[in-house]
Write a structure and sequence with these properties.
Two copies of one chain form a homodimer. Chain A is an alpha/beta fold. The first copy, chain A, has helices at about 15-30, 35-50, 55-65, 70-90, 140-150, 165-180, 195-200, 215-225, 245-265, 285-295, 305-320, 355, 380-390, 405-420; strands spanning about 100, 115-120, 125-130, 155, 185-190, 205-210, 235, 240-245, 280, 300, 325-330, 335, 340-345, 345-350, 370-375, 390-400, 420-425, 465-470, 495. Chain A has a seven-stranded mixed β-sheet, with helices on both faces. Chain A has a five-stranded parallel β-sheet with strand order 5-4-3-6-7, sandwiched between helices. A four-stranded mixed β-sheet of chain A has the order 18-2-1-19, with no helix packed on it. The termini of chain A are far apart. Chains A, B: This is Aldehyde dehydrogenase (NADP(+)).
Chain lengths: ~500, ~500
């Protein structure tokens, strides 16, 4: 069944692009003003439509990406669960953060007018689909779901790695939205590479969202930031996700840790942004040997696209050739009927933490089934390693179940440092397999993301596409329903009563 | 008493700058981990210190800025109220948005680990003080207060328009913080122009905040965005704040509207970012004549700095010279003992809305006591004007107390458009005189700000300096106190219980 996906997709003509941008702009005024409940119903309808066509979507995605049925079934479920989760967020309404300041003639700084603040949609959003999640970070993925939930029309630049899956999904999204009464232009697909760049320069686009490489994401971020009117660009780029193991943890469950690590860095053939790319082990650890053995037993698997495979081959060779780097397991490349190569895992040993830190290339993401091990002697090594790693999505620590005093001290000093370099700090688990839930954080300092204050996974992802607007002294008939005194939508609000400000006054 | 402030302030040497940056970085780890209550106490201590020295601060600021005692007394009060307001925000704790996802073996997408999310400080923030608020947007102003509250050390680039006021305030801030136990390096003053730019390029600076001109702010935004690791830059730049008056409102209270408008656009000699710079009146309105008369009666007043006065003179001449623009009141310039000129207001009449929109220069902020009037014939004129205005902090509408059907229809169609172009839509009041309260929004699409999702006034301003971090499966002893099961700080949290996700599953 496998055939090579076309990697160059048809370009939209300037007229076609103009018509898509115009439609999205017209839709923005309407879609953005629908009640949260209306948008929730539309998102649920999209989820239902994708579930109903799940079988054919999965078959198409298997053909185009080489991913397994099991993986794609789980990913499609995640995608529709995500859509329903945002629908629930809309029905709850607290995402609007409605705040009412009551008129207060005795306000400490002089009479205060009636002020009503809420969050409103930014406007049309341009979403770039990722290669590695043909459903969950693609056409109907988290960026699309959160932007539509926020009230923003979406122009979706398809990834050329799964063009037919994208078209099929887009058709389902469009018809479900239409049946649910969403305005024409609420969602549209772009396939052209140049059209994807031109659209980002268009003044009508209000934000961009991207998941992909540092080079690609940075180029787009630079375009978004250097426009005559710069716009927010939510890029989720590269991450090395360092993990460390204490000697207590190794003594207690070394085998389990080795197996868990290999399972995590080779999951999805290493093509996850949460892949643990660096493992820090105590000096003299037995784990490198065991990890190499386990990695050698992982069967080769197809990479997502030829471009990713080429880049991975190049980067892995570059790292393996660094003087002093030992190749513990040398991955091999195999032909695949798709013409996109299959690869097996590579494990590199950089030596000491000092050796690791002396080569910046070892600290950069290598997208694919390759991991780098280094050994630490003292607390300072770990501190130095975590400090030197570029901004990362995650930092992982494996500890003993009952850490002794030395281990407690070692780790206590590292946790805050890890939090300052990442968006998620995790213990005794592995960073792949991200829960899509309210308290999730998928983000981090650059280059993990271009927008450190946000997440691209979990309900808080909706915040990216919202901005505050305050109405001052507005007559009831001119207020959006959500802000009216009668609260016809029954939304949660926080209210600041008159007289509450006297504590702020200077002492007499 | 007036003397010319030095407009070139001493440059820090590279060694001095390095030492300030190093101290801020060291302080960040400590200050950021203090409990919100500790930081609240420190902010209150700063407020108390400024209030205690209020008299001498106000005298110094009068000398340097030419602003009146009344204005500066009010502004200093706003500044200390602001500090206490953020202290209360910290004591309340909901700004941390703590979210707990309980471990859930039956989570719809597979077992979910324990996840705990909160907001953490970004790190050292570089704040550029504004010229026009020597207290409230300067050394101890809203940006400083909100960054310190968030847990970020502040490097404050002083504005050269009030250097001694800045030094005096900085000394009080530093000693109050020190007495309250804040680490050395939590706050420091920069005076050099070049140092202010070099610091923004330094990798240790995690965010920038700025209030000032479009040209200056954009240059700094470009630096922040083009760093090897780009950082958030919260620039509050230019805004024209269009206001419109219906014929019903004019009939009902034309005189009051004319007086209110003149009071607002000439307040602070027109040097407020919320100055209503454009007034849209019904065709044939009597108000332009009355506005010109009232403006001619406003006595000349000193501008803040020579640079601002020069720019204002140049821009006002440029606008007055546009063919078709009628000068209804021609402002005059007068000598002042400070050598910074005094000016009286200028009122320009652009003609019709079509005339106004044909000259982009008329739609750009002119910082000073100048306003542009245009007359509209139909609904479409107002829609066109609001659409054409660059992103703005505010849009104002003056309506009849009991609008007739035609007026209701006219305005209903405009409110959503106004909200899409601005951060605050107000009715029957004027945009100057900003209430500092929870529901305030001071921001808007570019060029009003470089970060449309945020506000620089009101309690929500703290959000700018925070980013989310999630702890996954963390042992209790490694969690920050705020996230521990025992909740020793008594902070508000939202909790996601197990089993709550079953509704999100695909239908069977």
């Amino acid at each position: 069944m496998n055939t090579t996906p076309r990697l160059t997709e048809p370009e939209e003509t300037p007229e076609e692009l103009e018509s898509l941008l115009a439609a999205a702009t017209t839709a923005a005024a309407d879609w953005g003003r629908r009640s949260p409940h209306d948008r929730a119903d539309a998102l649920s309808a999209v989820a239902d439509a994708l579930d109903a066509e799940g079988q054919s979507l999965i078959i198409e995605a298997m053909r185009e990406t080489g991913l397994t049925e099991g993986r794609l079934t789980g990913e499609l479920k995640r995608t529709t669960v995500q859509l329903r989760m945002f629908a629930e967020e809309l029905r709850d309404g607290s995402y609007l953060r409605i705040a009412l300041d009551r008129q207060d003639p005795d306000f400490v700084l002089g009479p205060r007018p009636d002020l009503r603040r809420w969050l409103t949609p930014l406007g049309p959003v341009l979403v770039y689909a990722a290669s590695n999640f043909p459903f969950a970070f693609s056409v109907a993925g988290g960026d699309t779901a959160s932007a539509l939930a926020a009230g923003c029309p979406v122009l979706l630049k398809a990834h050329p790695g799964h063009p037919e899956t994208s078209r099929k999904t887009a058709g389902l999204v469009r018809s479900a939205l239409q049946s649910a009464g969403a305005p024409e232009g609420t969602f549209a697909l772009l396939t052209g590479r140049q059209a994807g760049v031109s659209a980002l320069r268009d003044p009508r686009i209000a934000a961009g969202a991207f998941t992909g490489s540092v080079a690609g994401g940075r180029a787009l971020f630079d375009i978004a930031s250097s426009r005559p009117n710069p716009i927010p660009f939510f890029g989720e780029l590269g991450s090395v996700n360092p993990a460390m193991v204490t000697s207590g943890a190794e003594r207690e469950r070394g085998e389990q840790i080795a197996a868990g690590f290999v399972g995590s860095f080779t999951l999805g053939t290493g093509q996850f942004c949460t892949k643990p790319g660096i493992l820090l082990l105590p000096r003299g650890s037995e784990l490198p040997k065991r990890i190499a053995e386990l990695a050698q037993n992982v069967p080769p698997a197809r990479m997502l696209t030829s471009a990713i495979a080429d880049r991975y081959r190049e980067r892995t060779t570059e790292l393996a050739d660094i003087p002093g780097v030992e190749v513990l397991a040398r991955g091999s490349e195999h032909a695949d009927p798709s013409d996109i190569p299959q690869v097996s895992p590579t494990v590199l040993h950089a030596g000491s933490v000092a050796d690791l830190l002396s080569e910046p290339a070892l600290l950069e993401e290598n997208f694919g089934p390759c991991a780098v091990i280094a050994e630490y002697d003292a607390d300072e090594d770990l501190r130095a390693a975590i400090s030197a790693v570029p901004g990362t999505l995650t930092v992982t620590a494996h500890l003993a179940g009952q850490p002794d005093d030395a281990e407690r001290q070692l780790v206590s000093g590292l946790v805050a440092l890890a939090a300052s370099r990442s968006g998620r700090v995790l213990f005794d688990e592995w960073p792949t397999g991200l829960a899509v839930t309210p308290a999730q954080q998928h983000g981090g300092p650059y280059p993990a993301t271009t927008a450190v204050s946000h997440t691209s996974v979990g309900t808080a992802a909706i915040d990216r596409f919202l901005r505050p607007v305050t109405y001052q002294n507005a007559p009831e008939f001119l207020l959006p329903e959500a802000l009216r005194e009668s609260n016809p939508l029954g939304l949660p609000r926080s209210t600041h009563q008159p007289g509450a400000s006297q504590d702020w006054a200077p002492p007499q």
